[in-house]
Design brief:
Blueprint lengths: L1 H12 L6 E4 L1 E3 L2 E8 L5 E5 L7 E3 H6 L7 E9 L2 E11 L2 H5 L4 E5 L1 H6 L2 E4 L4 E4 L8 E4 L1 E3 L2 E10 L2 E9 L7 E3 L1 H6 L9 E6 L3 E8 L3 E4 L2 E4 L3 E4 L13 E3 L1 H4 L2 E6 L4 E6 L7
Parallel strand pairs: 4-8, 5-7, 14-21, 15-20
Antiparallel strand pairs: 1-10, 2-3, 3-4, 3-6, 5-8, 6-7, 9-10, 9-22, 11-23, 12-13, 13-14, 13-18, 15-21, 16-17, 17-20, 18-19, 22-23
Length: about 280
């Protein structure tokens, strides 16, 4: 018993291991990190919980001698001090980023989050690995649609309070984007609604319909008049029925967010931007 007590005292006196920190660049709405592919000089990737696999631009893959149709294996990705070997990644033409004159040549997807507890500290612009959430953080259970993390939110629209299964998407700059089938089922697609068009990674130019939402509820938090749109058609991701929509960085950036895929959990801790409209 004395030995155990002494050992416990030593362990308590030892400093906690510092979390691994990976700095990121915040292009308003998206998290960008530098990634070295197969030992090449680092290039810019978006950190994207909405990507079921990490993705590399086809043109870059060709220049690196990486071949494959849609998927290829045996790839090494180094993200700061973290090296992920023997990765299966997707190859995709990311021409939309070139049209926008952005340097993005890939996406960091599911496997990064599956291997690590990842905290996104939007204030400090760093990813923290293997750091437990703060004691005052609120836990949200996660479920998965394939490799995509999902939680629930409630939308107040007129007299309706609609529960929506929202895929958590750190690659999306918006607050909430609803799938077309969900919006249609609940009569949200008014013929005179305002529309906008913007680029997406997978589908290129996509048209969105503005949805007048009075409030978004996420656990104990309530967001008045959030920026909510819906896909105008069922083309591509707009037609998915596994989830009702996407929860993006316009909401997430107001928190310090921790993902633990192994425990099927996400924690939110109030950040300094929470009070911003």
């Amino acid at each position: 018993m004395i030995i155990r007590a002494a050992l416990a005292a030593v362990l308590l006196a030892m400093p906690a291991l510092a979390a691994t920190e990976i700095p990121f660049r915040w292009t308003p709405g998206q998290i960008e990190v530098q990634v070295a592919v197969n030992g090449r000089p680092p290039i810019w990737f978006i950190v994207d919980t909405g990507a079921e696999y990490s993705i590399l631009d086809r043109e870059v893959a060709k220049s690196y001698g990486i071949t494959g149709d849609r998927f290829t294996g045996g790839v090494t990705l180094a993200i700061g001090p973290v090296t992920m070997r023997d990765q299966t990644i997707m190859l995709m033409a990311l021409d939309n980023f070139r049209r926008q004159k952005r340097e993005i040549r890939g996406l960091v997807g599911y496997d990064f989050f599956a291997r690590h507890v990842v905290t996104i500290d939007f204030q400090r612009r760093v990813l923290l690995l293997s750091q437990p959430p703060a004691a005052n953080a609120t836990r949200f259970p996660l479920r998965f649609a394939g490799r995509l993390p999902v939680t629930d939110g409630i939308l107040t629209i007129g007299q309706k309070r609609l529960k929506a299964a929202l895929m958590i998407d750190t690659g999306a700059s918006q607050a909430v984007v609803l799938r077309h089938p969900f919006a249609e089922r609940h009569g949200l697609l008014a013929s005179d609604a305002r529309t906008t068009t913007s680029e997406t990674v997978a589908a290129g130019p996509t048209t969105w319909i503005k949805i007048p939402v009075q409030q978004l509820e996420l656990g104990r938090w309530k967001f008045p008049s959030p920026n909510v749109s819906a896909y105008s058609t069922t083309r591509g991701a707009g037609g998915y029925t596994e989830t009702d929509g996407v929860l993006g960085n316009e909401v997430l950036k107001r928190f310090r967010v921790t993902f633990d895929y192994g425990r099927k959990a996400m924690w939110l801790e109030d950040g300094p931007q929470f009070a911003h409209p």
